[in-house]
Design goal:
Length: 85
């Protein structure tokens, strides 16, 4: 991975997670959207508020939740059709 990207990710994690106290899912979602140039709708941002992930409860990790949300948004933006089986 490019060192500039790594530096940006570290700075963004610090800003979102530590300074703004955003959860892991929102932090991941915001960083990925910035890296890939995808604009997030306000409703999407709001939907990630309640995704607090593992937090000692053995639930799904917020890093995974945010990344999975982003994958759906990214491929939707790229026009990839949803496939139903």
């Amino acid at each position: 991975m490019d060192e500039d990207i790594k530096t940006k990710i570290r700075a963004d994690v610090h800003r979102y997670y530590y300074e703004r106290d955003l959860n892991c899912a929102r932090t991941t979602l915001y960083i990925l959207s910035d890296i890939f140039g995808i604009t997030l709708a306000e409703q999407t941002k709001a939907s990630a508020v309640g995704l607090h992930g593992a937090g000692g409860y053995r639930a799904q990790c917020g890093l995974l939740e945010g990344a999975l949300m982003f994958i759906g948004i990214y491929f939707s933006e790229k026009g990839t059709a949803e496939r139903l089986t």
